[in-house]
Amino acid sequence: MTTVINVPPSLDEQTFEHVIEQLALIPLDEKILVDARHARWASPYGLTALLCVAQSRDERMTFTVPEHAETASYWSRTGFFRYAAELYDLHGTVPRQREAHESDVLLEITPIVQSDDVHGVVGRIQQKAADILHGQLGLDTAITGAFGMTLSESCQNIVEHAGQGGWVAVQTYKYTKRLGRRVVVIAVCDAGVGFRRSLESAPNHRRSDRWDDAMALEDAVLRAMSRFRHGDKGRGQGLAGIRRFVGRWNGKLSVRSGTARIAITPDWDEDVPMAESLPFFPGAQMQITIPERVGEPKAAAKSATESSTSRARPRERSV
Which domains does the chain have, with CATH numbers? Predict the structure, then answer.
């Protein structure tokens, strides 16, 4: 028997939950068809997370290509089908692969397995990112170096914590749902061990009665805890740096792992700080969203930093 999972017409970090909800109901030994025929749009998070779906089960899945020609063409430009063909049995018409030359594809979907991959990603995107961030999004030139460092730290999380490879993609588009202006989005997704199991492997880890995926996300994102010893220089500070970057530029950080999702939200977004008891999905899926600056005074960035920090408070905990 084959069970069909329907991909929503618009696929992002919110609507991807519908995919996970369907997946969670299917017995492990059943065959699965991921039906994307009616998909019309997908964010970098949606596309990279679809690749993680194929990694989440031992049985090889079938994937139906979007029927809308423009959608299929764009997914092809992002490099999605290149990797989907290795993980799924593809049904439908796959457009011929072309280089990602469009301005809205800053970085096509790229596999991350080892540290050398991270360095390659940052090197490839640096100049193009500078042109987009400063020239098109009106962001200060100082953001360029910080953006590269944030991209590097995001990818490094896969190398150090996933236990297997993952994917990164960077894109710009107009975010009409809430902002009505352009954003740059980094998505980094894997189907590895996730934050809870990674932190449990730390030599000094002490598990409390309330230890779960939500607490693990709080430890990693809000408290900058890591499975590495504090004496290991440069270890465990990646998410802290990402938080500072997101706060400075009035952006949003969302991280899902296991059965929970944490969000550092600016004033233009209404996402909940913590979602718990979600259907289980392996690994970690992260999205960073930085909006275009439109005549905002510098004080706004400081205010956004304070606001985003206050909207993701850690829960009371017992050790």
Answer: 1-93 (3.30.750.24), 104-319 (3.30.565.10)
Instruction: Kindly provide the residue ranges of all beta strands, DSSP E only, lying in the chain, ordered along the sequence.
Output: 2-6, 10-11, 31-35, 41-42, 61-64, 88-91, 105-112, 166-175, 181-190, 252-258, 260-264, 274-275, 281-291
- Find the helix or strand (DSSP H, E) in which 69 lies: helix 69-77
The residue type at 109? I
Tens of pLDDT, residues 82-94: 999 999 999 999 9
Q: Which tens digit of pLDDT belongs to each residue from 222-261?
A: 987 765 444 344 444 578 889 989 999 999 999 999 999 9
Cα first-last separation, the chain: 46
Instruction: Tell me the pTM.
Output: 0.87
Question: Which tokens hold the place of 111?
Answer: 């596999």
Q: How do 181-190 and 105-112 pair as beta strands?
A: unpaired
Let me know if 264 is exposed, middle or buried by CB neighbors in 10 A (0-12, 13-18, 19+). Answer: buried
